[in-house]
Design brief:
The complex is a heterodimer of chains A (344) and B (678). Chain A is built from eleven helices and 13 strands. Chain A has 344 residues and is α/β, with parallel strands linked by helices. Chain A folds into two domains: 204 residues, Rossmann fold (3-Layer(aba) Sandwich); 114 residues, no CATH class. In chain A, the strands form four sheets. In chain A, strands 3-2-1-4-5-7-11 form a seven-stranded parallel beta sheet, sandwiched between helices. The longest helix of chain A is centred in the N-terminal third of the chain and has 21 residues. Chain A starts with a strand and ends with a helix. The relative contact order of chain A is 0.14. Chain B starts with a strand and ends with a helix. Chain B folds into three domains: 166 residues; 128 residues, Rossmann fold, CATH 3.40.50; 236 residues, Rossmann fold. In chain B, the strands form six sheets. A seven-stranded mixed beta sheet of chain B has the order 10-9-8-11-12-13-14. In chain B, strands 20, 21, 22, 23, 24, 25 and 26 form a seven-stranded mixed beta sheet that branches. In chain B, strands 19-18-15-17-16-28 form a six-stranded mixed beta sheet, sandwiched between helices. Helix content of chain B is 36%, strand content 21%. Chain B is an alpha/beta fold. Chain B contains 24 helices and 31 strands. The chains are: A alpha/beta (344), B alpha/beta (678). Chains A and B meet through helix 3 and helix 4 of A and strand 3 and helix 1 of B.
């Protein structure tokens, strides 16, 4: 099958492209001119990977003069992974890439002739500040959003859901927090929980000089982190993209079955760093948010560790009951071990 | 293909990206909504100006011309500057041409839409160029601009004071940060302050699609809305708002749902390949695309919603009271004599229901509750009005609680005291006497009689004969005179005071210069010439005219209460048709009037039908009050009756319904009498 994919040089994208190409699919990877070299390096020995110069945030997407005509006519699937993912991103950047980028991709798909499936990678963060059980077909545009990333991804998903795609079926995936590889611990960048890992590795260096053995954490007892290792996510996506159901539109929460409580997660991580700190939950998020940057943790993370949302995955269980995530206690030591290396 | 990018101040949820074909060209039109983030708008203009042929701005303030000087909001100017060499438009030129045309067209088509109505502007400054046009349609304009631009919950009434205010604050207005406008949300508590009440009481609300994002939808419920153009979002909002009627100033192109003034002007701009459009280009496109008003019926109106109304009736005599099963055993006892007086202390009660009323026009259904006030006319007139008001207002409260949106006063309840004015003031829901439709229905009955008698011919659309209105300077008489002057070739207006008659004649002449109008103070003089006589006097039973003088085959509509012609008079002249009123049938195939209201079958009083009509139309207002009647209102209710399907069902005489056979019998008598005369 011929697949057009965006964001294939990213953290998730390169692993997914690798897997799809190994399975024999013909991939057309949309890359920005400045990322072409990087892309060629990543996929150098792959014969079934082709590069198309373009930019999703650009009105015409494709750089070539001929536009959509230059794409092979028999592309059957489009995977839109490209997005600006950075909690500290400016609004205009987030908007141009996430909202306009998605609009442009929809426009492109509407003009391609044989696309059977449009796979849109959204995020669990589209729940915004919603509290309670968030289901897979829920979207609350009027709710508060903690950052521009979450807001623009919500807007993008809203547009996808309401897009007029006649022959094309739409799949929306909302992955949870993505961390390193569960088998190797491999991770590309410092992000999400890794900010805490960095802090822990620094504390570990001075642990004998600590005046008190406590770690204040501003979260609720029931706050959870819907965490998924990147390799698991890629396996799931691969499976779901290869065997989609026949509904016109489906959306899936790609999160683990188990509830990973923030306090449990931090306790386990601390163990990995040989730190014997007692976690004390503290109130006053306003003050906590001011302290976080001093510890080099972006304050934008705070809403995510204070989450009161649980992610319902009944659609996923119904359509893909065999997709199971490993337990976090089993893979976290590997992740932490690797993280130690990153910050040593 | 030309590419057009619209930067909209509203929500990103309404973004679109689509191709349209117009004027033989293909255009790609993309909307980018910034959710009221001005900086984002600016950044997007900078990023995309080189990627499109035309840039358009929507939802940002357009230029305001005050005293010959053009004022541009500083942020609008920033956007335009940011566009650089890329041509831009905000649709203002096209709108400036099309909107006044649209409004005038609308006023012509629906003359009662604006007449005497209060028009509310969420932001008058946004509609600045069109205020004069609105002012010409109704002088009752009200503006929420003080709240909208400064957050102070107050309003400005009238165009003159609004202009004065704008003149004073314009340097300040230009510099208000647009993002602050979103904080002036009309859902805010402050808008509920009494100082703003008169704004939300308005009949017509003028909005644009961006404002639909920050106004309170309930405020539009049952109102008329005029919107610049309808997009998907405002369509959804208007459906939710349950607005009564929505007029969009831009046509709904099925295959170009997102094209508005802004989009169309951009398309035009890139099509004509000019920097600026001139008037001819604009007029041309208005004509070509047939840009004219569009009526949008909100979904909530399409799906069946059942509004409720109430109507108050009462027993006409003591014998009616004994019709109640509970009181029946008392009739023959000693207590029986006092029942009438005792019952006045009994509060009103739910007597019955009218179900199955369904508009012929839009299928809207309404249900009516009939409330009984156990007072006979005798008791009512003997008591102090205050006592009756209290009893009526108690019923109004119950009706309000059971979901009625409007209540009508039946029979004598609308005669007591000031004829509904006080009751309406104290009632939580609007009160109407139903007199407008009663007047209208009586005239229907008159024309029905004329048609059936078949003695008068129509020439050039007018009855070729003479009509007389006795008591023509009174409120009902005047309305009848005005209506009949249009329908008849010759009219005689009679009233006791000659100077008033003269005044009326000049008024009627102005209205219908072709009709021959005669004034008199002694109606008997013309009695033998008239084919139709309407009497509406307060003669209190004194004779106003000798019925023996009347021409055979004449139709008399006796609108006065008590009647001007006694039963004795009527029986003297079998060749004259004396009509007391016209009663009507409500629209709907399954109308059921649960209880006896003194009329056969499902026929109802015209005043009850007026209440039902107002509920059908969603016009919850005190439509007819006091003894005065307005010509405009009678014409309007007449229009509404035709629209929803209320029609004449019975012609009532002094002793009950007049059947068609009775009319034909009268005709025979008349023909014989005429033959005798000649």
């Amino acid at each position: 099958m011929k697949i057009l994919i965006t964001g294939a040089t990213g953290f998730i994208g390169k692993r997914l492209a690798e897997k799809l190409s190994s399975a024999g699919h013909e991939l057309y990877i949309l890359v920005r001119r400045q990322s072409l070299e990087k892309a060629q390096r990543i996929f150098e020995d792959k014969k079934n990977i082709h590069f198309i110069i373009g930019d999703v945030s650009h009105n015409d997407v494709l750089d070539t003069v001929g536009g959509v005509e230059t794409l092979p006519e028999d592309i059957e699937a489009v995977i839109h992974l490209a997005a600006i993912y950075d909690l500290e991103v400016s609004l205009s950047q987030a908007y141009a890439n996430n909202v306009v980028g998605t609009q442009n991709m929809i426009y492109l798909v509407q003009r391609m002739k044989k696309v059977k499936f449009y796979h849109h990678i959204s995020t669990y963060a589209v729940s915004g500040s919603f509290e309670g059980d968030f289901n897979e077909n829920q979207l609350e545009p009027k709710i508060e959003f903690p950052d521009f990333y979450a807001r623009t991804k919500m807007q993008a998903e809203y547009l996808v859901r309401n897009a007029l795609l006649k022959e094309t079926k739409v799949r929306i995936y909302r992955p949870g927090i993505i961390i390193g590889d569960s088998r190797t611990g491999e991770m590309d960048k410092v992000d999400g929980p890794y900010h805490f890992f960095r802090l822990f590795s620094q504390i570990a260096k001075i642990k004998h000089a600590l005046p008190v053995n406590i770690l204040p954490l501003c979260c609720y007892a029931k706050s959870t982190v819907p965490m998924l290792p990147v390799d698991v996510l890629v396996d799931w996506l691969f499976d779901m993209i290869s065997h989609p159901t026949q509904e016109k539109l489906s959306c899936y929460h790609l999160v683990p079955d188990e509830k990973i409580f923030v306090t449990d997660f931090v306790t386990e991580a601390l163990k990995g760093f040989d730190l014997n700190l007692k976690i004390v939950r503290v109130p006053l998020p306003g003050i906590y948010a001011r302290i976080m940057p001093l510890l080099k943790i972006p304050k934008e993370l705070l809403p995510y560790i204070r989450s009161k949302t649980s992610y319902n995955k009944s659609q996923l269980k119904k359509d893909f009951p065999h997709l199971k995530a490993p337990l976090f206690r089993d893979y976290l030591p590997i992740i932490v071990e690797k993280a130690k290396g990153m910050f040593s | 293909m030309k590419e057009i990018i619209t930067i909209a101040f509203g929500s990103a949820k309404e973004n679109f990206d689509e191709r349209i074909n117009l004027f033989g060209d293909t255009f790609r039109v993309k909307r980018l909504g910034v959710d009221f983030h001005f900086e984002l708008a600016l950044e997007l203009v900078k990023k995309y100006r080189s990627q499109c042929d035309i840039m358009t701005f929507s939802g940002f303030p357009t230029d305001v011309k005050i005293a010959g000087k053009i004022h541009t909001h500083y942020q609008t100017q920033q956007l335009r500057d940011a566009a650089g060499d890329t041509p831009w438009t905000d649709g203002a030129n096209l709108k400036f041409m099309a909107l006044p045309l649209f409004l005038k067209n609308l006023a012509q088509k629906e003359p009662f839409l604006f007449k005497g109505k209060k028009i509310a502007f969420y932001s008058g400054i946004v509609q600045w160029d069109y205020l004069q046009t609105y002012h010409e349609l109704s002088e009752d304009l009200i503006f929420a601009d003080p709240y909208f631009s400064t957050g102070i919950p107050t309003v400005i009434k009238g165009l003159t004071s609004f202009r004065k205010m704008i003149g004073k604050v314009r340097p300040f207005l230009k510099n208000v940060n647009l993002e602050r406008l979103k904080e002036k949300d009309f859902r805010h508590q402050l808008t509920k302050s009494p100082t703003m009440k008169s704004f939300f009481d308005a009949d017509i609300f003028v909005v644009n699609e961006t404002q639909m994002e920050y106004l309170k939808l309930q405020d539009l419920s049952g109102k008329t809305v005029i919107i610049d153009q309808i997009d998907n979002f405002s369509r959804k909002q208007l459906d939710l708002a349950n607005a009564n009627k929505v007029y969009s100033c831009f046509p709904d192109f099925v295959n170009m749902p997102h094209l508005g003034f802004t989009g169309l002007e951009a398309v035009l701009l890139s099509h004509v390949k000019k920097i600026k459009l001139d008037q001819d280009d604009l007029l041309d496109v208005i004509a070509k695309l047939k840009i004219r008003p569009e009526i949008y019926t909100p979904k909530s109106q399409k799906t069946i919603t059942k509004d409720r109304f109430s109507f108050i009736i009462h027993p006409l005599s003591k014998s009616h009271l004994f019709g109640l099963s509970l009181l029946k055993p008392l009739e023959k006892t000693m207590v029986g004599a006092h029942v009438e007086d005792m019952m006045k202390h009994v509060p009103g009660y739910l007597y019955g229901k009218i179900t199955g009323i369904k508009s012929d026009f839009n299928g809207k259904e309404v249900e009516g509750d009939l409330f009984g006030l156990p007072m006979t006319p005798k008791v009512m007139l003997k008591q102090k009005p205050e006592q009756v008001y209290k009893a009526l207002n108690k019923i109004c409260d119950i009706a309000h609680k059971s979901g009625s949106k409007i209540i009508g006063l039946g029979a004598f309840t609308k005669i007591v005291g000031d004829a509904g004015v006080t009751v309406n003031e104290r009632s939580p829901i609007p009160v109407t006497t139903g007199n407008s439709l009663s007047a209208s229905a009586t005239l229907w009955a008159a024309s029905f009689g004329i048609e059936k008698m078949g003695l008068i011919k129509k020439v050039d659309g007018k009855y070729d004969g003479t009509v007389m209105v006795i008591g023509a300077t009174g409120s009902i008489g005047k309305v009848c005179a005005k209506i009949l002057t249009k329908q008849w070739k010759r009219i005689v207006v009679s009233a006791p005071r000659p100077y008033k008659v003269l005044e009326l004649i000049s008024e009627l002449k102005e209205q219908s210069p072709d009709t021959e109008i005669v004034g008199t103070s002694s109606p008997d003089k013309y009695a033998s010439e008239c084919d139709l006589i309407i009497t509406s006097t307060s003669a209190q039973g004194e004779s106003v005219m000798d019925i023996m003088q009347v021409k055979p085959g004449c139709i008399i509509c006796d609108v006065s209460r008590p009647f001007d012609f006694t039963l004795e008079d009527v029986s003297k002249r079998p060749d004259v048709l004396v009509i007391a009123s016209g009663e009507v049938a409500l629209p709907g195939t399954n109308v059921v009037v649960e209880k006896n209201i003194g009329l056969p079958g499902n026929i109802v009083y015209a005043c009850l039908a007026e209440t039902a009509l107002l509920a059908l139309e969603g016009r919850h207002e005190a439509f007819s009050l006091s003894r005065d009647l307005s010509y405009e209102k009678v014409c309007e209710i007449d229009q509404l009756a035709r629209k929803h399907g209320v029609r004449l069902a019975a012609v009532m005489g002094h002793t009950g319904e007049i059947t068609e056979e009775e009319i034909l019998l009268c005709r025979e008598h008349a023909l014989k009498a005429r033959a005798k005369l000649s």
